Amino acid sequence: MIRTLDIEARRENLDDVIGFIDALLEDSGCPMKTQLQTELAVEEIFINIASYAYEPDIGKAKISAGVSGEPPVMTMVFEDSGVPYDPLAKEDPDITLPAKERRVGGLGILLVKKNMDDVKYEYRDGKNILTLTKYINS
Known about the structure:
With 138 residues, this protein is of the alpha+beta class. The model has no long low-confidence stretch (mean pLDDT 89). The longest helix is centred in the N-terminal third of the chain and has 22 residues, at 32-53. The chain has a single domain (3-135), classed as Heat Shock Protein 90, CATH 3.30.565.10. The chain has 3 helices and 5 strands, in the order βααββαββ. The protein is 33% helix and 28% strand. The chain has a 5-stranded antiparallel β-sheet with strand order 1-2-3-5-4, with helices on one face. A hairpin with a 4-residue loop joins β2 and β3.
């Protein structure tokens, strides 16, 4: 079953978003490690939407999520009507370089890609749509 959360894209709403996702994961018997990896990705994506999508205004975010299949898979879809932006289009930062030599930015989305099993972006009907998939290892 897919559940949906429509919420203002404001940093102070992060706890509500995390709570929404955690409830689904807990209902699915998700291991703590997988839950923490998912929370990290959700935080990164939601804070990016809240910080940049509608700047300087405030807009809405829609998060749809559900667990299905065997083995169980969590699918989360983040939608916003803000500025078109594909976070997957940027090249991953070179984390082998010393910190002083690295370019700024990109570490958060790299963490999302490393912690999720699949990440897809599309821009459709005036919306940024980012889909995250995570296998729930029981």
